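#struct-pred

JT: dropping the chains for the assembly here, can someone run the whole complex?
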Amino acid sequence: MKDSPIKVALVGNPNTGKTSLFNQLTGLKQQVGNYPGITVERKVGSCSLSQNKKAMVLDLPGTYSLNANSLDENLVIELLLNKNDKDYPDVVVVVTEVENLKRNLLLFTQIKDLEIPTVLVINMADQMALKGISLDIPKLEAALKTKIALISSRKATGIAELKDLIVNYETLSTEPCLNASDIDLDYFNNLRRIYPNQQLYKLWLVISQDVNFGELSKNVIQNNSFSKSDDELKKLQHKETVKRYQFINDLLKIAKKVDVTKAKDLRNRLDKILTHKIGGYVIFLGILFLIFQSVFEWSSVPMDFIDESFASLSTWISEHLPAGKLNDLIAQGVIPGISGVVIFIPQIAFLFLFISLLEESGYMSRVVFLMDKTMRRFGLSGKSVVPLISGTACAIPAIMATRNIENWKERLITILVTPFTTCAARIPVYTILIALIIPDKRILGFLNLQGLTLMLLYLLGFFMAIISAMILNKILQFKSKSFFVIEMPNYKIPYYKNVGLNVIEKTKAFVFGAGKIIVSLSIILWFMASYGPTDNFANAEKNIASEPQNQSLAEDDLQDKIASYKLENSYIGIIGKSIEPVIKPLGYDWKIGIGIVASFAAREVFVGTMATIYSVGSHDEEENTIKKRMRAEVHPASGKPIYTFASGISLLLFYAFAMQCMSTLAVVKKETNSWKWPMIQLFVMSGFAYLVAFVAFQLLD
Amino acid sequence: MQTTADLLQKEQKAIILSFNLDTIPLKLIEMGCMEGHSIELVQTAPFGDPLYLNINGTHLAIRKEMASDIVVEIIEN
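RK: done, full complex below.
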């Protein structure tokens, strides 16, 4: 028995500290991936229970009940109903929280009906004294037919007891704690008669909702003389819920005591301030402002350091490795490519840090509450605020986060406009362009002008999202009933382990996801920039040197001429030149054109691409950072800099509006189940971006 | 006094008498919205909507439209 680990599934309502417990049990020994075919996060980790026992812990998505409302909740049910699933647990740990025990127990009683060994965890036990709560554990254990672990996932108390219960899971009772079939005896007796080998509650779950469960399909079971209409099924579900609550209410009346005089209500006082009709908005805007100022200010130190380090690494390699093609490829292709990803780790990590702080503390739900009425005017829901804010990190998880918007129209509009919010992948482009065209000055003593510009770009993104939502709200003519329900959880001080692990996980995913594309793209670009199809490329030295006006040039200038002549006649130069007429009215040269085309894979590719293109032609040791190279770039004919205020602003606006991310398009296709919507995003957004960039350049130039 | 949940005053406590099963989603029932449970208006959002309620100890927010389908009996002002 030593070798096979016990399979444990963590199940629970949202906001019960389930993830804290998962992090407590598994620490850094966890992997986050996706379930095959669907974009639901799958978190597993290993945990040692005793000297020779291990557990594989699976953290299932948070759910309020076994009646599925979303893809995430469906997954919980499908797993718990399918004994053949490789993740099917030996023991289920239901995580509840002491203050919301009543509601949390509803899910517990449903899971008990599935006859899987089940442990009940009551979390935040350390809060009991403070809130004046006392529990009669023996009574609860007897009535719920289970073993209870009283824990505090944050203070790590009670974890050893929980591990003991998991090790001895075979001794747990698998008997249901109430008889749900009482709600309609005739109906359930009929079911039992026709399917004597199936577990009754499982049958009921398959009938009452659309879970995907092999041969036991809803249609087959429903095809009976005694089957029920959807309305009748909902009535039965209501009856079932009432029955479960009766059981729980009766039990808690004797087993849970609350001394109201001891309860201190922090929630009440904070809510008065944070959801105040004026103060609430001021605080929310202040928080956003703080986030964007700090993302720009605080991360500039590590970013400069990373930039310089990669530049010297590149120089070191080109000097110390034997000269040749391999040396060039590494120093001019791979290293600039990698540095183009690594440099943005500080900013992205800061963003993910702030977003997970907002979610962990319970503040995000208050923002949803504050914004719902306003958002509804634009055809959105208060819940659209969460995707729009997390869209500032990345549109992909943001679009997945729209799943809890109950109304399909509001959800579709949110999905369509989310890519306008400024995602982390735009930061590299914005940062470098802002540094080039906006002076590093302070106004009013504390506002950094560059930080302010960045914030304006973020606001512009939000503004565009809202405007297009308004237009879509007018155009899209389908009615669907709005079911807006959101839990307002207790305020919590964010738990450092949850926040830390989340930041590490998300940053890692971004860096490796983008990293793969960027590095391979920079290698391809380097090849295309270093070789050409025609004789012009091969004979560059001869052609330039033989021109009469070049005879008097100094050696360095001559080398420059040769390098840029070579680049223009390389594969990439030829492609770039052919698209130049299209982008010239926006103020870009063909090199930027290559950057833009490459950016349709992913926006963050831009900086790496520019770095690779510019470093191929450069021989000057001084110009070894990306920024310096871009600043030094001039029009070959006029000698004027490429990155002026006009072309810079035009480029910023193009990146603000264009739909340049293949992964986002793929996610939108998955979530909307059609190519129609992602294609609309691609063409409408990019067309609009072109138009705006054109107007901006023509006005400013 | 009998009324509907959208007409509750701030900090007014009531008991849920009935609700429209066709329009109230199962999720809300599961969160505690059912006959006999207590309901209290904690706060109203700016512009009067949505409503922040305490139902049977669960704190949640719903829109006025949905709250108007919940019939309640006020027990304490």
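JT: nice. Helices of chain B lie at 26-30, 64-67. The first helix of chain B runs from residue 26 to 30.
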